[in-house]
Amino acid sequence: MRHQLDWDHLGAVTMEKQQVQSRTLFGMLITLGVVYGDIGTSPLYVMNAIINDAGTLKHATPAYVIGCVSLIFWTLMLITTIKYVLIALRADNHHEGGIFALYALVRHRAKWLISVALIGGAALLADGTLTPAVTVTSAVEGLRGLPAMASFSQHPWLVPLTVTGILLFLFMIQGFGTATIGKSFGPLMLLWFTGIGVMGAVNITQAPAILKAFSPVYAIQVLFSPTNKMGIFILGSVFLATTGAEALYSDMGHVGKANIDATWPFVYLTLILNYLGQGAWIIRHYQDSAFRNASNLNPFYEMIPAELRIAAIGLATVAAIIASQALITGSYTLVDEAIGLKFLPRMIIKHPSQVRSQIYIGAINWLLCGVTLIIVWLFQTSAHMEAAYGLAITITMLMTTVLLTQWVLTKGHRGWAVALGLGFGTLETIFLTASLTKFVHGGYLTLGLTLLIFLVMVAWYFGNRRRLHYNQDAELVSLLDYRQQLTQLSHDDRLPLFATNLVYLAKVDAHYRLKRTILYSILDKRPKRAKVYWFITINETNQPYDCNYTVDMLGTRNIVEVQLNLGFKKSQHVTIYLREIVTNLIANRIIDPQHPHFGTEKNRDVGDFKFVVQNQQIMDLASYPTMRQLDRLLIGGRVLLQNITPSPAIWYGLEFSDVLEETTPLFTIPATDITLTNRAVRHQMQPPQKPHQ
Hints:
By secondary structure, the protein is α/β, with parallel strands linked by helices. Helices cover 54% and strands 8% of the residues.
């Protein structure tokens, strides 16, 4: 019989820290700084990309500009506002959002949804490497238009060098925590949005014809207009305006959907005003002799008065840094969720500040830093980066649509699910098709990175599944069959005491089955005598911050089977949890007090711990020559990743002095070949005869 022991006092503290902010002025201010960095800095480069698509400014005719701004308006309306703000934010997994949190809600519906989540997550991580590069570069490039900064125009390498310095500093400070400076992000982004909105409104008054862009007629017309040399592929540049929508959904857990609902109308208004303002400036100046043949011209800076431009560049740079910071921390969160769902290998996760949501993953930080800097120097200009930007994120959005459709189906709204899947699926497929032109211009980089991340996820997740498949029968034994031996071993004074509490992190199923290697480690060769044997199974749940456990004593006082249930965003520091469990069991007289003879603490009831960590070797695959090649690749990849990533001792927060690492075979029972036949045995010796009584 299993006994449920609630962890009330610890859970109460945890849940208090995890309360999602309600709709308040302070919460709304924080939301501006956390959620909208990516989408909020898109005016820095979207219209610039659209001019580049036209060739030069003189080809950006009023009809072309009005149509493109109309496309931007309706793209933001349909994808960002309707799909993400109005629909996706309602698909929250206990206040958490993002593609992995959404997958956790619907994964029970079909096995194939795992592929959707893996593709979408990999694309989101990969495309994110371009965001810091393109936003910071677009901001710094504004210095080229200042007479006092003529050197930036004369020496093109100064821009990527400056960007490198900014990004290096940003990545270097992540390990120290950014909670303090993060408090200023909200007011700074409020200033940013207000500024771009006012500048846009001022320019609209000088060319009110741009207001025609509110009509979808002009959006449709420009797709088929001869002035649009790109045709439908112009949507690849238009899509850049909404690339931050997926990040908006992923950041829901930090600020709450109520604050996003309250702030998005303001953000949407200021963005549209700025795009309209840039369009108005182009309409007024596209025939000016000073600009006619300009190609790399950024209307965002050009529409700002000369006396305010240096301040605008400074504010744009700050906004770009905030957007990059949001992307970096968002990548940590995404990877953390992927680890919790067993999509990625374990990594060392640190909490550099007292802020619950702030984590730091060093491996991801420096990998992201390296790839981002390579992109900066490979492309060097924002125009070249824009050509490669946004391809992978369209894949993520399409995958999110698939998962959202499944979520709507779980609510019993079949008609709405079909409408959502067909409507947004068709729209995003068109955007994906339009973005395919970016492949040869740099999109290959993000798609290559997407493929690499996807293959790592596949090897880790499916490699583990295939390994468990081969271990299903012969490699699993029932713990119930070994109760007597373990009890006898525990009380056998002829053997030295190996540990008071001997702990194995072993997956025990509902029928008490576990890997044979666990019992092999305890009973065979040199038996490990302990007062209490612990078998702990760690289960990741769909609820982000679950923290509870069940205990099964198997009718004994020295064998403890624990099912520890942790949410996919919950810390997996087993040592903390185990000591609490032991204390509770002793207090409830379920196990005997352990009373160590020596120690610095008086009246201590808990003895010492020894954790046994088992490692496997890839060469053990040779013992299964009949294994399918695909299974061999998946399992081999899984074991290889396991051996080059941090050990369970680090991941589970085990004290190193209490850890014993053992090398165990991948399969304790080698494969056999039934075709092997005995042809003969020669010159054998007869066994000796027993003497007659």
